Amino acid sequence: MSLERVVSAADSGIALVVPQENLIVENQFLFVTCQVGSEPTIKKHLAQDGLRFSFSRPGFLTFKLPKPHTLSDPLSLDNPFVRSFGLCLGKVVAETVEAGADRVWNEFSNIQFDRLHVWPRDRAAAGHRNFHPGMNDDASAAEATLLKNAPAEQLNQSENVPAGNIARRNDRVLDCILVDPQEWWIGTHRVDRWVQRWPGGFWTADESVEMVSRAYLKMSEALAWVSWPIKSGQRCVELGCAPGGASQALLSHGLRVIGIDPAMVDAKVLTHPNFQHIRKRSSNVRVRDFQEVQWLTADMNIAPSDTLDEVERIVCHRANRIRGLILTLKLNDWNLAEQIPSYLERVRGWGYSRVRVRQLSHNRQEVCLAALRPTQKTRRRTRLHRPPTDRKSTD
Ligand SMILES: C[S@@+](CC[C@H](N)C(=O)[O-])C[C@H]1O[C@@H](n2cnc3c(N)ncnc32)[C@H](O)[C@@H]1O
């Protein structure tokens, strides 16, 4: 008979079952962190995937998985509003940061981690009274104390682990979410997606840059996420470019930017030699003027279907061949989240085979839709390499 130890978080109803002979951690709960306001849409979609909602605070949710998971079982979630997720191990309630850190290392002493990720749940809607989701002083203090008290056998501290908290692919991460300053929920994830490398999915940029607006961060994060094959000197058109933060990020990638917006652009961007401002609404520009443009970005404060109309007018003109799109779609009403599949379908219909959507950590009540189509060269190569039977059936 296998000896089992149950490290319980009785008050949370979550138990950590540890068969001692092989130290497999089994659990049946999942945690999710997200923007305040997106919880109902996440609950609805995860319920359709068979996950039963268990507990929530604004910006933090737990769900019961259909069956127990071990640490080695793959865990994936495909929802654009989920900023981070992992297996939920329980919670620690402590009066002081020192006591909290000691309890974490004691209660989860059976698991070895490569990285520690600590972050707070969002306390307000993104942008509400200037609230920006991300690290705060409580989370920084908890992180510092957890690191200081980490036993060497529990947190990989070998020399070949780079400093800092950005994880590498396949790292096993200990997640500590400050649901309240004295209530820490503990979880774990293995990094198999780009965004899981950052604590809480909060991608971080070089903030020493003198930003024209926070749109600089949003576009920098989007460019890091899409990982486009950008070549210096290529052209990008930006619909809704004022005051210019996003253009600033595009320019810093070596792109030549044509910004379209009836509003004023900041002098820092306006005077950049690679920036051209067309001071018009996008509906008033001549679409055949974009024949030399490879990339298009849009961030207009209009309804998503209107943004898609404006983009379609340009990308579907026969003279143009735009390779990739980054579109910010404003969800002025959270119910618009239900329309996301139809937005994706519409963009695929324009010939973009790789279409993705995600609420970036620097997005407000909006999502980022990214689309890429193969170059003519790649398409020709794919056709030539297709087996003859396959070629016949699709030609
Ligand atoms: C959220 S701001 C854009 C922020 C900008 N991307 C940046 O990096 O600073 C929205 C902008 O969309 C512009 N806008 C709204 N409708 C537009 C349209 N039809 N054509 C062009 N710009 C439009 C507004 O003038 C406004 O400057």
Structure summary:
By secondary structure, this protein is an alpha/beta fold. The chain has two domains: 4-201, VC0802-like (2-Layer Sandwich), CATH 3.30.2130; 215-379, 3-Layer(aba) Sandwich (Rossmann fold). It has helices spanning 39-48, 97-107, 137-149, 215-226, 245-252, 267-270, 304-315, 340-348, 376-385, 388-394, and strands at residues 4-9, 14-19, 26-34, 52-57, 60-70, 82-93, 115-120, 172-180, 183-190, 235-239, 256-260, 275-278, 295-298, 324-330, 354-358, 366-372.
What share of residues are in beta strands? 25-35%
Bound molecules: S-adenosylmethionine
CA(first)-CA(last) distance: 61 Å
CATH class type of the largest domain: Alpha Beta
Number of domains: 2
In DSSP terms (H or I, runs of 4 or more residues), the helix count works out at 10
Q: Name the overall outline.
A: elongated
Instruction: Indicate the CATH topology of the largest domain.
Output: VC0802-like
- The percentage helix is 10-25%
**CATH architectural type of the largest domain:** 2-Layer Sandwich
Number of strands: 16
Strand order of the largest sheet: 4-5-3-6-9-8-7
The overall average pLDDT, rounded, is 88
Mind describing the biggest β-sheet? Answer: 7 strands, mixed
Rg, Å, rounded: 23 Å
Low-confidence stretches: 1-23, 388-395
SS content category: alpha/beta
Order of helices and strands: EEEHEEEHEHEEHEHEHEEHEHEEHH
